[in-house]
Write a structure and sequence with these properties.
The protein has helices at residues 90-101, 106-122, 143-154, 183-197, 220-233, 246-253, 257-264, 281-290, 301-304, 311-317, 336-349, 361-376, 409-416, 443-454; strands at 4-14, 21-31, 34-39, 52-55, 59-63, 65-67, 125-132, 157-162, 206-210, 236-241, 271-275, 293-296, 321-323, 392-396, 424-427, 430-434. By secondary structure, it is of the alpha/beta class. α4 (183-197) links the parallel β8 and β9. α4 runs parallel beside α5 and α11 (336-349) crosses α13. Residues 60-432 form the Amidohydrolase-related domain. InterPro entries: Amidohydro-rel, Metal-dep_hydrolase_composite, Metal_Hydrolase, MTA/SAH_deaminase.
Length: 459
């Protein structure tokens, strides 16, 4: 692995544990997977002598973004008028889209994962958590194995959420029988994947999360055994909570979802929930007390959220907050950088209706970096500082797009909303995207192979 010296960076967003700040006209030296030093004149260091030099003049360099909720397999159902939320009721939409999911093949899971990871990397994401809950019987059990294969091929730091659904549709779930598993099947495969892939060492590129899909689609025993396995193996837990299901859970179990999960033990500093837009202040306070975190997915709120998630209240309570893209069934892109802008603007929209003020723009960058690292239990990513993983992205701000903005790099991503790809993305000290290309890959060929897999699916 090459060492790199990024020289004369216009701005570097650093964080040595006391919050983000900006250094101007400094160098960054990487050594293998880690950041060796950040500061001026690093070319004088002896260990910089053999580093490959990159002219970073004009670059704003940020810590790599951390995506904490996604469904990569849904990449194959993007931009379809026949699956448009705005033209269907939720029930009709579910009845139409789940049969499509149930027809995906093993190759579809591989290529859809590669597609989502490529888009994430292009827009500055260096660590991705995917909640893979779709296991059609004909596709087999090696779907997450193929995701790890895709992550290794493209260079993504990958946390796999092994999801699953165990409650039949006849008993109130939304899942077709082709996608159902027993609790024993689900737990056994979680254990296999943890034993095969989970690496808790510093700068790990592979970790596992036990992630039953959601309480509304699983038996109670599925969640109980998930807690037992995750605590035994020392891995994180994840599920969907507070996205419209709380009344259903209350009718079934006599309590809303947050209390139901807490009663089971699916809560605490090793657990994080996706969405949480319908939760009461009391429920949020319980999560904060337990240490349970939130992956906020702002862009699906435009389509499927009856309310805009109360991020100011969550922050005031001290909840750990990360950001997620969510799957293409409710967000047609995999651009986490754009989610920073969406999250901020949605809170600005609701400012007059909130008890607490909108967090500062830089806080939204924090959700996508240090917040995501905290949710995933990682102390080695999410910040630019010596000793941290060399996960970063750079934007060349010497463009008309950035005139008038360059005085405040901390607020740039939240306020401006950047849709174009980065000029460089580095993961674990390896350049995985630069100058509009994936080094060592023909992007057109990757896209063609993905389109071939997509063409096997009948809509």
């Amino acid at each position: 692995m090459a060492d790199y010296l990024l020289t004369d960076c216009e701005a570097v967003i650093i964080n040595e544990g006391k919050g983000p700040s900006v250094l101007r006209h400094v160098d960054i030296l990487t050594s293998g997977a880690r950041i060796e030093a950040i500061g001026p004149g690093l070319s004088r260091l002896a260990n910089a002598a053999n580093a490959q030099r990159l002219d970073a003049s004009g670059w704003f360099v940020y810590p790599g973004l951390i995506n904490t909720h996604h469904h990569f397999f849904q990449t194959f159902v993007r931009n379809r008028a026949d699956l448009d939320w705005t033209k269907l009721s939720v029930i009709d939409w579910l009845d139409r889209i789940y049969p499509v999911f149930s027809r995906l093949t093993e190759d579809c899971f591989y290529h859809s994962s590669l597609t989502a990871m490529a888009e994430l990397i292009k827009h500055g994401c260096t660590t991705a958590f995917d909640h893979q809950y779709c296991f059609p019987r004909h596709a087999g059990k090696r779907l997450i194995d193929r995701q790890f294969e895709a992550a290794e091929r493209i260079g993504m730091r990958f946390h796999a959420g092994r999801g699953g659904n165990t409650l039949p549709k006849s008993e109130g779930s939304t899942i077709p029988d082709e996608m159902l598993e027993t609790t024993d099947e689900f737990i056994a495969d979680c254990e296999r994947l943890i034993e095969t892939y989970h690496d808790a060492s510093p700068f790990s590129m592979r970790q596992m999360v036990v992630a039953p899909c959601q309480p509304v689609n699983c038996y109670r025993e599925t969640f109980e055994q998930s807690v037992a396995l995750a605590r035994d193996k020392g891995v994180r837990m994840h599920t969907h909570v507070g996205e419209g299901e709380s009344r259903v859970i209350e009718a079934r179990h006599g309590r809303r979802t947050v209390d139901y999960c807490a009663e089971i033990g699916f809560a605490g500093a090793d657990a994080f929930y996706a969405h949480c837009w319908e939760l009461s202040h009391t429920e949020l306070a319980r999560m904060a007390s337990d240490g349970t975190g939130v992956s906020h997915c702002p862009e699906p709120v435009y389509l499927v959220g009856a309310e805009v998630t109360d991020i100011p209240a969550m922050q005031a309570l001290g909840l750990t907050i990360g950001l997620g893209c969510d799957g293409a069934a409710s967000n047609d892109n995999s651009n986490l950088m754009h989610c920073i802008h969406s999250a901020y603007m949605l809170q600005c929209l609701m400012a007059s209706q909130r008890q607490h003020p909108v967090p500062a723009p830089v806080d939204f960058l924090g959700y996508a970096t240090t917040g995501g690292a905290d949710l995933l239990g990682r102390a080695d990513i999410g910040r630019l500082a010596p000793g941290m993983a060399a996960d970063l992205f750079a934007i060349d701000t010497r463009r008309m797009d950035y005139v008038g903005t360059r005085h405040d790099p901390l607020s740039l991503l939240a306020k401006l909303g950047i849709g174009m790809p980065t000029d460089l993305t580095m993961i674990n000290g390896r350049i995985v995207w630069a100058k509009g290309e994936f080094p060592g890959f023909d992007e057109a060929e990757l896209a063609a192979r993905a389109e071939e897999a997509l063409a096997t699916i009948q809509f």
